[in-house]
Every structure is written in C-alpha cells, then in structure tokens.
Amino acid sequence: MTIALLMVIAVSFAQQPGKMDAIYSGTPWFDQNGKIVSAHGANIIKEKNTFYLFGEIHTDTSNAFAGFNCYSSKDLYNWKFESIALPLQKSGKLGPNRVGERVKVMKCPKTGEFIMYMHADTLTYKDQFVGYAVSKKIKGPYQFKGPVLFQGRPIKKWDMGTFQDTDGSGYILVHGGEIYKLSDDYKSVVEKINENITSGFESPTMLKKDGLYYFIGSHLTSWEKNDNYYYTANSLKGPWQSQGLIAPEGTLTWNSQSTFVLPIDGSKGTTYMFMGDRWSFPKQASSATYVWQPLTISRSSLSIPEYKDSWQIDTVTGLSSIAKSNEEIIINTDKQIQYKGNWKQTALESRSDEKDASFTINFTGEQIALYSVVGSENGYAKVVLTNEKGKVIVTALVDMYSKFSTTTQVFRSPMLKKGNYNLTVSVTGERPNWSDKRKSNYGSTGYYISVSQIKIKPHNI
Questions:
Q1: Are 148 and 154 in contact (CB under 8 A)?
Q2: Which of 168, 191, 286, 295 has its CA 20 to 30 A from that of 419?
Q3: Residue 8's closest CA among 451, 422, 355, 392?
Q4: In Å, how far are 116, 192, 204, 225, 253 from 228, measured between CA atoms?
Q5: How far apart are CA 297 and CA 319, in angstroms?
Q6: What are the pLDDT digits (tens) for 208-242?
Q7: Is 139 exposed, middle or buried (CB count within 10 Å of its CB: 0-12, 13-18, 19+)?
Q8: pLDDT greater than 60 at residue 3
Q9: pLDDT the model gives residue 206
Q10: Beta 380-387 vs 68-73: how paired, if at all?
Q11: Can you tell me the distance from the alpha carbon of 30 to that of 344, in angstroms, rounded to the nearest whole number?
C-alpha cells in the first residue's frame, strides 16, 4: 500500500499515546495508527459533529497519482484514518502514471450524495481537466466518473478548488480565477460566471463573510512557496478588486501555499481557518507538512499577520486562542544536548552539514518538540525517537529548507507514556532540490540542519 512508503513509520502501539491538544503547523502529524497523515491539496467538510479531511497521497519517488485519503476528527487536532476514499485506478484518466491533485469534496443538498472533485492530468500536464467522483457515504468508496462537463466539454484547466455558497449552490474555482456554477446535482456545470482574473493564480480557494467574497490564490513558483494574494467582490460575478497579500511580504505565506479555507462555526462566532501546504520536493511523502492558521478578517481586509506554531480552536464556540504551554525550554548550547561531528554554534543555533553529524538529548516527558533556524542552505534531517530500552518509537525525515529564513518548530512527537526517551537528529546529506518545466532550478543550496531549542512537555501528575 502506498502509505507504507512513508518515512515517518510508526508509533509503538504499546505507548498508548494521549491526545494532541492543539493545531501544530509545519510538523509531521500522526493518525491513530501512528502513520503520517497524508492529505495534501486538501479540504475539510463537516458532517454532523465530525470533520472529514480529504487529501492527496504522496510518495517520495514520483508525483504520479497514488489515491486520495480520508481522515476524521472531532477536534481538528487528532486524526483518524478512515479510508483511501478514491484509490489509484487500474487504468484510465486516474490510472498509473497519471496526476490527481487538489481533491475537494462537497455534499450535494439536493441529492445528499458526496461529490469529489480533482485536477486530473498526465505527468507532463498536457491533458488537464476537472474530474469528479461520487459516493453515497462520506468515507467512500468514491466512483470516478470522468470530467465535469460544461456545454458538453471538459474544463481544461490546472489547479482547481471548490466553494459552496450559503444558499447551497456549488462552484468550481480554477487556475486564473475562473468560476463555474454547478448543476443542482453537482455533476455538471451550468454556467461560467466569472472570467479569468489574472495570469497565474494557482491553488484557488474562497470564503464568504458578511456578504463579501474573498478569493485567494498563489503565484506560479513550482513547488516553491510564495506570497499568496487575494481579491474581494460583492458578487461571484465580480467585479473583483485586488487587495494584496494575505501574509507579510517576504514570509511566503508563512512558507505555504493555499488549498482551502474552513469556516468553523460555533455558538459564539466563526473562525476561518486557512489551510496551506508546505511542499517538500522530492520527499513529499516523508517531509511535506501543513500550515493551518486562523485568518484575521475585517471588512475587505484578510490576513495572517503573524505565524502561530500552535493554537487552539473550540469547535463548540467557534473561537480560537493561543495554546498555553508549560514546556521546559532547552537552548542549543545546553549541556543536555550531546553533539557528534562538526557543529557551528552561535547563541541562536547549532548547525552542521557534515553527513551523519548528529545531536542527542535524553529526556523524561510526554512530548518533545524541535525548533530550528530554517534557511536556504538547509537540507533534510533524520529524527529518531527511542525509549529507554532502545526501541524506536518514531522516525521522521524533517525538511529544514526555507527560502524565507526564520526560527520555527519543525518536529513534534506524538504524546508519550511515562518513561525516559532519547531524541537523535542527524544530517542526511540530502536536500530539497528540483527543476520545473522551464528548466528553472529551485530549492536548497546546502545540506545544513539546525537546532535552536528543544521543548519538553512534562508528564501530568
């Protein structure tokens, strides 16, 4: 099975880990089986009192379609793997050596069916169209039906998204800013209601607040992150007004690319959660992570003014808050951290690009987190967490590359039972690096890994 290819392999079932208590961006997430959550280009829909996350399965060897996963959660912190909602097909448009991206699911108000949409294509991106699949059950299995047709023809565009308005109408959003209205059964398009807005505008997503529509998209920079931007309008037909960036310039949308905005409605308000992907080519299965942040919205202004590496959401009230922490902080020069190999140390970080150079810390606690200075010369780090008997609890491949240099959380362990543990982090001598269709080169120029500080959450007594 494709998921077995992931580098982040296992949390020992004997550990009986507790529950995560917040949304942690930029780190590997684990499901109830200890497997990495693989759900990129995703969306979330709520059915009854449960949130369902749909996203792309990835491997570390190819960008070919490997299926779409479905996960469920009551709190948006802890995710249960439910199914491969749409698996790799034996043949055809979502068969071997094809592309399937940007999966989105909506429930059709008229029929009660769940309709899944995706961008289908060849590996060279020359047979693009918006496709769909259907299921009577939210978890699937979904039956792939082929292209969504408008006037008898496929919508031959690349990146796509979906939007469901407050009146139940469904829409397909595509690359460039075009908007298509779906039929009552959500299986075809009845009207093109908005023309192309601009060149580029990948990964389109949309939200509506107080009658105003906000249309978010990304620049064209391959797998590299960029400063995402948005438009507003009083009608889906426009006119659309450019409003600028959704995060401070140069932060590259806090190192992410938009995929969806989830309104979390509650008794006291609504939090609009930006969902972004932090891609990591070529190790997309092992090292790509997620950036989920609460949006600040006031009239025509929409933004993520500051990055929250951990925050909480009350799904009953709909209100968000900063996660409180009682964690012990250990700085990079502390003698508790034992280094092997050649390391350069400053007051800000310890860094090394010597293959197999490592650092280790012994600790007692229910969780450990690693903070690093990420930068343009950084590569992949191997993380190994073992118990006092030497049994491996978690192994992970962490991407420390970032075109936008900052100090940030890059790894957080699952919750651990009471005991003593060792965390070892080492230089792999690998880096995220790639070229696009125009033969432009992207990615890291070095192999450095970094430790700025380590945080340990003590056991509750």
A1: yes
A2: 286
A3: 392
A4: 25, 24, 10, 9, 6
A5: 14
A6: 999 999 999 999 999 999 999 999 999 999 999 99
A7: middle
A8: no
A9: 98
A10: unpaired
A11: 32
**Residue 133 contacts by C-beta under 8 Å, 6 or more apart in sequence?**
86, 115, 116, 118, 142, 143, 144, 145
Q: Which two tokens stand for residue 239?
A: 């006119």
> Rounded to whole angstroms, how far apart are CA atoms 393 and 38?
19
How far are the Cα atoms of 62, 354, 441 from residue 436, in angstroms, in the given order? 14, 29, 7
What secondary structure, in 3-state letters, does 339-401 show? EECCCEECCCCEEECCCCCEEEEEEECCEEEEEEEEECCECEEEEEEEECCCCEEEEEEEECE
Q: How far apart (Å, rounded) are the C-alpha atoms in residues 408 and 398?
A: 12
The answer to whether the beta carbons of residues 203 and 242 sit under 8 Å apart is no
The pLDDT tens digits of the residues spanning 181-199 come to 999 999 999 999 999 999 9
Q: What is the largest CA-CA distance in the chain?
A: 69
Residues 233/215, Cβ–Cβ less than 8 Å: yes
Would you say residue 313 has pLDDT above 60?
yes
Q: In what order do the strands lie in the sheet with 289-294?
A: 257-265, 270-278, 289-294
Instruction: State how far the Cα of 82 lies from the Cα of 450, in Å rounded to an integer.
Output: 35
What type of residue sits at position 220?
L
Q: What angle do CA 57, 259, 81 make, to 5 degrees?
A: 35
Residue 225 · residue 256 · CB < 8 Å: yes
Chain centre to alpha carbon of residue 20: 17
Low-confidence winner among 60-64, 134-138, 202-206, 341-345 (lowest mean pLDDT): 60-64
Q: What is the CA radius of gyration of the chain?
A: 22
Token readout for 108 is: 């059709």
Strands 188-194 and 149-150 come out as parallel
Q: Both tokens of residue 56?
A: 């792309």
Residues found in the chain? 461
Burial class of residue 434, CB neighbours in 10 A (0-12, 13-18, 19+): middle
Task: Identify whether the C-beta of residue 413 lies closer than 8 Å to the C-beta of residue 34.
Answer: no
Q: Which two tokens stand for residue 88?
A: 């790799």
Token pair, residue 410, equals: 């890059």
Tokens of 293: 């942040």
Structure tokens at 454: 């380590």
pLDDT digits (tens, 9 = 90+) for 116-153: 999 999 999 999 999 999 999 999 999 999 999 999 99
